[in-house]
Amino acid sequence: MNYDPIKKTLGRLFNHSPFSRKVFYHLLDILLLRTWHVHKALRHFSRNKPAAGISVLDAGSGFGQYTYYLARKHPEWIILALDVKTEEIEACNVFFNQAGLSNTRFKVGDLTEFTQEKAFDLILSVDVMEHIKDDKQVFRNFYKSLKDGGMLLISTPSDQGGSDVHDPEQESFIGEHVRDGYGKQEIEEKLKHAGFGKIITQYTYGAPGKISWRLSMKYPILILGVSKWFLPLLPFYYLLVMPFSLLLNAMDVRQTHKTGTGLMVKAFKLNSDQL
Fold it and tell me: DSSP letters of 30-54?
């Protein structure tokens, strides 16, 4: 299924005012389990970090919800958000200016070409790498763009059922993906080849997360894929399923999973003292 048209519809629906955009971000924070995992990792990264002087690249910023989270939580950090979709970048620039978040800048750019030598303390890439064929070049660019001691944080589907693919003959649930998911060893080897010296990889979307994803994301997307006229019915659907989905999300974030349909990867650019 190509869900880009559905994303565009939702983005335009909530882009009428700064208030509706904030509501949209809040809904994404609640609904998307990956957001729960990413926020947890970002809170861990920010511990013992200075209030000012931290530079961040949101690599593949999409709707801008992670930039919004960081910009509000760390107003003295400087954030550059990059995406290939001009429409998304323009909408984010308008909203962030209206919201008075002057520590952010959105820019159209291709991650296979973008580098800023030793510019960032943190690079965030959420649900992006599964869309990019030349991932090795992107990882090299990320490494060059990180400061010594900086961290790359990746959230992406795994090869254990990511993109809802469970056998070689099955097609990806998400038509825009160029790969169904990464294996732990595969992504670690690619990151090491790019230069990263320390890599921590953990599964997300374990047993609780898989159920929550189907309830909160897969089934609604399938319904909207039939017709956008089902959109007014979604609030009633979520009223029924959200208590169960939120409980499952909390369980997934708190547990360590031996396998899962998602991967959370932390890759560090070691400085000379750490080598």
Answer: HH-HHHHHHHHHHHHHHTT--SS--
Q: Please name the residues in contact with 40: beta carbons below 8 A apart, sequence gap of 6 or more.
A: 253
Residue 27 corresponds to which tokens in the numbers above? 């809904």
Model confidence over 45-85: pLDDT tens digits?
999 898 889 999 999 999 999 999 999 999 999 999 999 99
Token output for 55: 């530079």
Give pLDDT tens digits for 196-223: 999 999 999 999 999 999 998 888 888 8
The rounded distance, in Å, linking the Cα atoms of 26 and 21 is: 9
- Arch. (CATH architecture) of 4-21+33-205+258-268: 3-Layer(aba) Sandwich (3.40)
Residues 160 and 180: beta-carbon distance below 8 Å: no
Q: Where are the domains of the chain?
A: 4-21+33-205+258-268
CA 45 to chain centre: 16
Q: Strand order of the sheet with strand 55-59?
A: 104-108, 78-83, 55-59, 120-126, 146-157, 262-268, 198-204
pTM above 0.85, yes or no: yes
